[in-house]
Amino acid sequence: MATPIYKRVLLKLSGEALAGGKGHGIDNEILKEIGQTVKELSEMGVQVAIVVGGGNFWRGRTSEGMDRVTADHMGMLATAMNSLALSDALEQAGADTRILSAIEMRQIAEPYIRKRAVRHLEKGRIVIFACGTGNPYFSTDTAAALRCTEIEADILLKATMVDGVYDKDPKKFSNAKKYIHVDYDEILSKNLGVMDATAAALCRDNNIKIGVFSMENLHNILDIACGKEIGTIISK
To answer: Kindly report the CA angle at 4 between 13 and 155, in degrees rounded to 5?
Structure first.
């Protein structure tokens, strides 16, 4: 078994990743595969935290006429549903998990407290952060960057539907150039679309390394944690 180079990682999953080919809701086979892979990463001695989006259930920005704050709160609840599903898949795989929510819902999750989250990680539990930052107008990418900073993770692993960062959309342009390494300022100045500007700036200001890779091969999660050049690395 390869040796991981990171002690603590934060994995950012989109809600769409859980939907698989269905496009919405949850694909149980995909969920099971993610659970097995993340459990394997934890068994390698890596402390794992996860932030998951809610786009497979709800995208507030497409809700014409709805109050933005209301729409964002509904999106946060969608991330709570995905967090519960992910926790269940991990527990079925034999992992020990805890869900910490930025919005208080004591019957299904612990309230987010930074020191509690770190303690769970130190005990080998996989920690899932639900409900983003708890505030409207902030994406789950920003929540991932914030939690990554707070728990002092070594890298933010961002799973996407493409195999890295390109200078333009590789699905539209056959001559799109893939970056192996790129810095934060280029991500921001060229608006490369890896994550929203708030999240990218937060990572830059706190020197958070970001690994962007494809979800099509879940083993990429293990490979990048072991230092293999998978996808794109964003750093100073």
So the answer is: 45
Secondary structure in 3-state letters for the chain? CCCCCCCEEEEEECHHHHHHHHCCCCCHHHHHHHHHHHHHHHHCCCEEEEEECCCCCCCHHHCCCCCHHHHHHHHHHHHHHHHHHHHHHHHHCCCCEEEEECCCCCCCCEECCHHHHHHHHHCCCEEEEECCCCCCCCCHHHHHHHHHHHCCCCEEEEEECCCCEECCCCCCCCCCCEECEECHHHHHHCCCCCCCHHHHHHHHHCCCCEEEEECCCCHHHHHHHCCCCCCEEECC
Task: Sort strands 126-130 and 155-160 into parallel, antiparallel or unpaired.
Answer: unpaired
Q: Which domains does the chain have, with CATH numbers?
A: 8-234 (3.40.1160.10)
pLDDT tens for 106-154 read 999 999 999 999 999 999 999 999 999 999 999 999 999 999 999 999 9
pTM for this prediction: 0.94
Query: For residues 31 and 86, is the Cβ–Cβ distance under 8 A?
Result: yes
> Model confidence over 208-233: pLDDT tens digits?
999 999 988 899 999 999 999 899 99
